[in-house]
Each structure stands twice: as structure tokens, then as C-alpha cells.
Amino acid sequence: MASFLVAALYKFVHLPDFQALQAPLLACCETHEVKGTLLLAEEGINGTIAGTSTGICAVLEFLRDDPRLKTLVHKESWADKMPFYRMKVKLKREIVTMGVPNVQAETMAGTYVSPEDWNALIDDPDVVVVDTRNDYEVSIGTFKRAINPHTASFTEFPEWVKEQSAEGGVLHNKPRLAMFCTGGIRCEKSTAYMRTLGFDEVYHLEGGILKYLETIPSGESRWDGECFVFDERVSVLHGLEQGHYKFCRACRLPLSAADKSSSLFVDGVSCPHCHDKHTDEQKQRFAERQRQVELARKRADRHIGVRVELKKAAKEKAMKQKAEAAAEATTGLA
């Protein structure tokens, strides 16, 4: 039975004091043994965390105690194993990086469309359906009829829009757009961006692909494939069940069964996507890392997570010793 609750969350909201929120939020997560990554910026909060149901509820309650985050919405799924190795709360310029200033997603986002109404919208031949995710995410699953912009990062999306808005492009003279992403955050910002360019009839999937897969039965679905997620589950299916993909430990791209059967796949070292992108020295380092992982697995132990935790403990010990040394030096001068 799955024992770890995974909560994906985001909210565009003005947080001018976001830097001051970092330490207490991290402390709350660590107190309740919650792991994952949360991003804080002046434009809001974004991230995914995992832990016991009690721990996740405590962190969500802590966030919603802030009146600005009272209406924070999250999506839940379950994992058999802890999908993260540690807890990070990062400070960012944007909670999802587009690189375009003054895109006010909080007030300018397009029209929400519920999962229940999504099929009818994207079945309309006059509606251009755009997947706002990166190419490697789209490659393992997307909605039927959806256009793949083939972007390597979200910062490339504005340039794609510029190219495709010109004569002959897929967006030229196409006022009705339906946009989607994993959890809703990228399409919320991208629809706001499209509205600044004069696209007024812009829609986006409320709750993203994850909410659609959670809500819509597979027999009624327009989804084809699996949905990439940014944790150790790698991908999910309808009902948010864990999918069949695994990470390449060298490049972090999702691997199918066919990828893993390729002669270019060496566990932990290379895959068909990255076999020619690393030096021999890097591959030797990856191979040694994989050897240590396999040894740890034979001992029924963890390798990566334990290493992270030990490094963190060592750092904290060093800081404590430094502080004690400084205090002793001050006492000696008195």
C-alpha cells in the first residue's frame, strides 16, 4: 500500500516578503519530515512535496495560515517510496521561468476550463490546442490534436509564439487557443502572456494534466500516453497511478522499455538520448556512482539520499564548530 502522500501546489500571488518566508517554511517541512522542493518568488509559490499525510497536512496548514495563501489549491497523489531525497526551499525571480517581465499571471491568466469540459473544447476543430511543456515531457504523452512547440525550456516559448504568429504559422489568425501543462502553472502564465499579445479567447486546463488524469475515466479520455512528473515516480497514468518510465541517471530524461533495451543504454551511465553528450571521464564517474548505488541496494540501504543527508549533517556540524570557535575567541579577548 502506498504510504507517502505527494502534494503538488502553486499560487500566483504578490509576496514582496518572500525571502523572509524561506527559513520558517523550511523549518516547518523539516519538523514534519516532509521532503521535496518549494520555490518562492515575489510572484508566488510553486513546488511538490511528499511525506506522511499528517506531515503534508501540517505544511499546507502552515502555508494557508498566511492570508495571502488561504486559497492555495493542491493536488494529491500517492507513492510507494519517498520520491524525494531532501527538502529544499529556493528563492527565485519567477516561480516558473519564462524570462518575460511584467507578465501578470495573477490577474491576466486565461479562462479556466474544468477537466469535465476540456474534451468538448479540444474536440472543436477551430480551437488550436497547445502543449506548453518541454519536448522531453511531450514525448511520452500528450492530448490528441495538441501541438508540440519542441521547446527545451519554457524560456523558448515566447520565441515559438512569435514565429508561429507570423503568416503561415499555426497561431496566425487563430484567435481561439486551448493551452495545458502538468499542474497548471505554466499554462496559467503562458495564457497571461498570450493575452498581452492580443489573443483574447485563450483557455487553459484547470488543475493541469494531473487533475484531468485524476478526474476523467480512461474510457472517456483524450490523453495519449503517460504524464511526466518531476520526482522519482517519473510518470503517472490515469488515476495518478505510477507509470512505466524510469530516469536515466546520466541525463535525467525519461526512459521507456525500448530505451532500456537499446545497446546505447548503460544503467546509470548513458542512454539513447545522451550516449554522445558526455566525455569518457564523465562516464567513468557515472559508472562508479552506479556501482556504489548497486552496492547500497544489495545492503538494502540507500545511496543518494544517505549521501545528501550526511553532507547536510557534516555542513551543520562544521558551522556549529565554527560558531563555537568564534565564541571561545571572543571570550578569550574579554
Automatic annotation (TrEMBL):
Keyword Lipid biosynthesis assigned? no
Q: Which residues form the signal peptide?
A: none
Q: Which SMART domains match?
A: RHOD
Give GO MF terms, alphabetically: oxidoreductase activity, acting on paired donors, with incorporation or reduction of molecular oxygen
Spell out the reaction equation it catalyses. Answer: uridine(34) in tRNA + AH2 + O2 = 5-hydroxyuridine(34) in tRNA + A + H2O
Alphabetical list of SUPFAM superfamilies matching this protein: Rhodanese/Cell cycle control phosphatase
Q: Where is the Rhodanese domain?
A: 123-221
- Keyword set includes Glycosyltransferase: no
- Which keywords does this Swiss-Prot/TrEMBL entry list? Oxidoreductase, tRNA processing
Stated EC number for the protein is 1.14.-.-
Which InterPro entries would you find in this protein's record? Rhodanese-like_dom (IPR001763), Rhodanese-like_dom_sf (IPR036873), TrhO (IPR020936), TRHO_N (IPR040503)
Q: What is a single Pfam family found in this protein's UniProt entry?
A: UPF0176_N
State the top-level EC class.
oxidoreductase
Biological process terms in GO annotation: tRNA modification
Q: PROSITE patterns recorded for this chain?
A: RHODANESE_3
The UniProt function text for this chain reads: Catalyzes oxygen-dependent 5-hydroxyuridine (ho5U) modification at position 34 in tRNAs.
Family that this chain belongs to: Belongs to the TrhO family.
Q: What is this protein called in UniProt?
A: tRNA uridine(34) hydroxylase
State the organism of origin: Pollutimonas nitritireducens
Q: Which gene is transcribed and translated to give this protein?
A: trhO
